[in-house]
Design a protein that fits this description.
Number of strands of chain A: 6
Structural class of chain A: alpha+beta
Helix content of chain A: 10-25%
Strand content of chain A: 35-45%
Radius of gyration of chain A: 14 Å
Distance between the termini of chain A: 18 Å
Oligomer: homotetramer
Largest interface: A-B, 30 and 30 residues
Number of helices of chain A: 3
Shape of chain A: globular
C-alpha cells in the first residue's frame, strides 16, 4: 500500500484524526507515522506530557497498520503490551510499526514511539487476529 | 479517598473528561468508574465500537487510581498489558481497578472493562512506579 | 475432568514431573495444583529462591490446564505475561489457574502462584489458541 | 564482560546448566547464547518440541544478562511478556538478549529465540529492577 492509501485508511478513525496521525512512509512490513498530539491529550491540564492511554493508542495504530501493510487484510488487536520508557511530550512524534510474524490467523507486531530530538519514548508488542481482506471492506 | 475527591483528581486530565469518566465507588484497594465514550472515540467513523486505544486509556486510568487509592501517593505506568476479549460499544461502561501488590517503589494493579448488559470486554495488568505523595502535589 | 485424569495429563510432560506438579482440585473453569520444586530449580546454586523461568513454567501450566478443564480441548500458549511480585522459595507452593474467556479459536486465562504461608508470589495472564479435543489425541 | 566471565556467571544456576546454555558472544548491550535442551525439556514425553516454560526460561536468562552486560550490575525480573511464534525443537538453539533502556532503578530488555535453520521461534520483552553491582556479590 502506498502512503496516500494508508492515510485514507488511517483517517477513517476519528481517534487518529484527533491525534493528527500522518502516514509518512511504508515498506513491505513496516510503517512510519508522524503525529501531533495537542494539550487535549495531556496527562493533566497544563502538563506537557502525553496521557499514557494516548501513547498506547499511537502504538496500537502503528502495530496494526504494519500488519495491514504486510498482508493487505485488516487485523484486530488481541492483546498488547506497552512499555513506557520516558515521558512523551505533547509535540510532533514519530511512530514506527513492524510486522514480526504473520500466520494464517494470528499476527505479531511491535511498535516504537520516538521523539526525533531525544529518542525512543515507548515500545509495544502485541498479538492480532486476521479480519477480512481490505478489498472486501464495504 | 472518598469519591468526590477522586473525581476531582480524575478531572485534572482532559483525556478523562473527554471520556466522561466518573468515580462511582472506592474501597481500600479498589476503584469503580463509569464512563460514557462518544462517537469521537470509535474505531471508525460510524462504527459503534470503541478504538482499542481508548480501551487501554480507560483500563490504565482505573489501574493507576486503584494504586492511588491504596497508598495516597501518585503512580506512573511502567508497563501495561491489555487483553481485548470482545468489541466494546461506545456506550456507558463500567471500569474496575484493583491494586494487586504494593511495594516501596513498584506497584502492580489490574483493571477490567465491562458492559453492564453483557459482561467483561477487556482486562489489563500492569506495573507502576511510585511518585510523590498526593499531599505534596502543587 | 476429575483430578486423577488431570494428573495423568499433567504427567505426560517431563517438565511437570520434574517440578512435582500435582493436581489438587478442579472446578468448571479453575484448577488448583501443588508443586514441590527442588534445589535443581533454584536461581543460583545454594539459593533458596526459584529461577524465574520455573515460575513462568508453573503459571503457564496452570493457565493452560484451566482452559483444558473449561473446554475439554487442548490449548497452546500464544503469549504470556508473568508478574514477579516476590521471590518464590524452593518449597511446596500452590498454583491456581483460571479460564477468563473462551472463544471458538482463542482463550484467555490467568494463573497465580502462592506460598501457603505468605501469600501470592507471582501472577500471569495469557492468550491461548485452541487445539484438538482431548478425545482425539492419539 | 567477556564471554568466559559471562559463562561463569551463567553456570551459577543449575537451570542454565541443565539447558546447556553457553555464552557465545557479548557486545556492549547485547548477548548471544546457544543452548542444547534435551528430551527432559519437551512439552510431552516423546515430543520433539520444547515446553513453553523452558522457552520463557531461555528468554528471561538472555534478557537479564543483556542488562548485566550493559551495566555491570545484577538485575531481577519484574515482569516478562513472552510471544510464542512457532514450536521450538529440542535441539541446538540461539538466544539473543538486548538491553533496550537502562534507568537508575528500572531496565528494559528484549530477547529472541531462534533456530539457526528456520528463524525466530519466540520473543520476549520485560521490565527488570536493578540489584547490587556484580563486584559486590559475595
Amino acid at each position: 500500500m502506498q502512503t496516500p492509501e494508508m492515510q485514507h485508511l488511517l483517517d477513517q478513525s476519528p481517534v487518529h484524526r484527533a491525534l493528527r496521525i500522518r502516514a509518512e512512509d511504508t515498506l513491505s512490513a513496516e510503517v512510519w507515522f508522524r503525529c501531533q498530539p495537542g494539550p487535549e491529550h495531556a496527562g493533566e491540564d497544563g502538563a506537557s506530557y502525553l496521557h499514557g492511554g494516548m501513547i498506547a493508542t499511537l502504538l496500537d495504530a502503528a502495530a496494526t497498520f504494519a500488519l495491514i501493510q504486510a498482508t493487505g487484510t485488516d487485523w484486530a488487536t488481541v492483546d498488547l503490551r506497552v512499555d513506557y520508557l520516558r515521558p512523551a511530550p505533547c509535540a510532533e512524534l514519530v511512530i514506527k510499526g513492524s510486522a514480526v510474524h504473520v500466520g494464517s490467523r494470528l499476527g505479531r507486531a511491535t511498535a516504537e514511539l520516538s521523539d526525533p530530538r531525544t529518542g525512543v519514548l515507548a515500545t509495544a508488542a502485541g498479538t492480532f487476529t486476521r479480519l477480512q481482506p481490505l478489498s472486501e471492506r464495504p
